[in-house]
Amino acid sequence: MTQLNINIDFEELTEAIMQSDMNMMMKSLAVTVLNAYMEVERDEFIQAQHYERNGQRLDYRNGYYERSFTLAVGKLRLKIPRTRSGEFSTHVFEQYQRKDQAFVLSLMEAVIQGVSTKKVTHIVEELCGESVSKSFVSNTMKRLDPEIEAFKSRSLTHSSFRYVYVDAMYIKVRENHHVVSKGVYIAQGVNQKNRREILGFKVSEEESYASWKQFFQELRERGLTQPRLIISDAHSGLKKAIQEIFTGAAWQRCTVHFLRNMIDQMPKKNNSEARKHLKKSSVRIPYKEPKKLVRNLKHACKEILVTKQYWRYSIKASMMAYNT
C-alpha cells in the first residue's frame, strides 16, 4: 500500500491554498469530515442509531446548531449535533487545536492521491487519535470522493489564464516498506481578475519530458487556452514540453528557482549577507537603487570569497546556468 508523506513548508502550503480556488474545496472537505465525525460522536453518546429502539438508549437527537470554526485554511460553518438533554458535547474542537497541521496535510494528501479507505482512516486518526468503523469510512468516502474528482476534472473553459506557473513538489512515499521520492506536478494560473487558481496536479514517478507533456495535454483537454506567459524552472524536459504543447507562448524562468540556483553555487560559509542582497535584488525597486544594490552585493561577495578571481568565476557560472 502506498502512503504519502508531504514534506514541505506548512506555511507555504497554507498560503498557496488560501490564494487559490483550492481553498474553497479544502474547506468543503474539512466540513464534510468534521460534521461526519461529530455525528458519530453523538451516536455513540446516545448508544442508538436513527429511529432505533433499544434498552441501551441514553438520550435523543435534537437537531443541530451552527458554529464557526477557524482552520489554517480559513473559517468554516459547522453543524454541531445536539441532544434533548443538552449533555452531549463534541471533543472535536479541543482535539483539533493540537492537530491543525496534520489534519490539513492529510486532506491535501487525499486531494493529490485520491480518496481511499486507508486515507480517510488516516485523516480521522490525525484529527482525534481514535480508530473509526468501516461504515463511517465508507460513508465519508462517498461524500469526499465526488468533491475531489469534480475539482480535479473540472473544465478550465470558464476563464482565460494570462500567466501559468508550473512546478514540481517532491513528496516522500512509502511503498512496499521503503520510502521513495515522487514528484507532484502543479499548475497554477492567473485569471483575468488577477486571482490565482490551481489548474491541476499529478503524481509522477520522475520529472521528465514525457510526464510533463502528458500533464500539459490533460490540462489542454480540460479546456486550458494558450497563456501569454509560462513561468517555471529551467528543467530541460519541462521546457521542451512547454514549447511543444504551448507553442508560441512566452517562457520565463522562475525567479525563486533562479535565486536558489545562484545561492547553491555560493560557498556555504558566511553567506548570509550575500543571500540577503540577492533576494532583495529580485524585488521591483526605483531606478536609482540598482547601483547601490550592486555595490553592496559586490562588497558582501568579496568578504565571503577567497579571491576576486573566484568571485568572477562564480558569477560567470551562475549566468551560464541562467541561460541553460
From TrEMBL:
Entry keyword annotation includes DNA-binding: yes
Keywords (A to Z) from UniProt: DNA recombination, DNA-binding, Transposable element, Transposition
One GO MF term: transposase activity
Family annotation (InterPro entries): Transposase_mutator
UniProt keyword DNA-binding present: yes
Biological process according to GO: DNA transposition
Family membership: Belongs to the transposase mutator family.
Role, per record: Required for the transposition of the insertion element.
Name of the featured protein: Mutator family transposase
Source organism: Tetragenococcus osmophilus
Lineage: Bacteria, Bacillati, Bacillota, Bacilli, Lactobacillales
